[in-house]
Amino acid sequence: MHAYPYFAYTADPLNVQLDYALFRAPYPVVQDSSLANYNMFDATVDAFYSAIEKAGKPDVNIIVSKSGWPSAGNGNLTTLELDRTYK
């Protein structure tokens, strides 16, 4: 799977916290039963596992093959500083 918190953040920056998208949230932002997610990457992977499980394939191994934050192309949402923070 590809996990890009950048796209969720840029689609809804009023409701998606930048610190959550960049692994910097000091507290769980999303609480789902016993799962507490401090970052959007983990929440994305958890959601993917849940979808696969609901599709009847709970034993499928998932590999994140791509993730990242762009460093240019969308003004102050794509800076070298944000890219470095994501890594």
Describe this protein's structure.
There is one protein chain. This protein is of the alpha+beta class and 87 residues long. It has one domain. The chain has 4 helices and 4 strands, in the order E-H-H-E-E-H-E-H. A hairpin with a 2-residue loop joins strand 2 and strand 3. The protein is globular. It starts with a strand and ends with a helix.
Set out the fold topology:
Blueprint: E1 2-3, H1 5-11, H2 18-21, E2 30-32, E3 35-37, H3 40-54, E4 66-67, H4 80-86
Parallel strand pairs: 1-4
Antiparallel strand pairs: 2-3
Could you give the count of β-strands?
Answer: 4
Helix content, binned percent? 25-40%
User: What global shape is seen?
Assistant: globular
Order of helices and strands: EHHEEHEH
Radius of gyration: 14 Å
What is the structural class?
alpha+beta
Overall pLDDT confidence: 93
Question: How many structural domains?
Answer: 1
Span from first to last CA?
A: 18 Å
List segments where confidence is low: pLDDT < 50 over at least 5 consecutive residues: none
Largest sheet, in brief, is: 2 strands, parallel
User: β content, as a range?
Assistant: 5-15%
How many helices?
Answer: 4
Give me the side-by-side strand order of the main sheet: 1-4
Catalytic activity: Hydrolysis of (1->3)-beta-D-glucosidic linkages in (1->3)-beta-D-glucans
Pfam families: Glyco_hydro_17
EC number: 3.2.1.39
InterPro entries: GH, Glyco_hydro_17, Glyco_hydro_17_plant
Entry summary:
The chain has 87 residues and is of the alpha+beta class. It has helices spanning 5-11, 18-21, 40-54, 80-86, and strands at residues 2-3, 30-32, 35-37, 66-67. The protein contains four helices and four strands; from the N terminus they run βααββαβα.
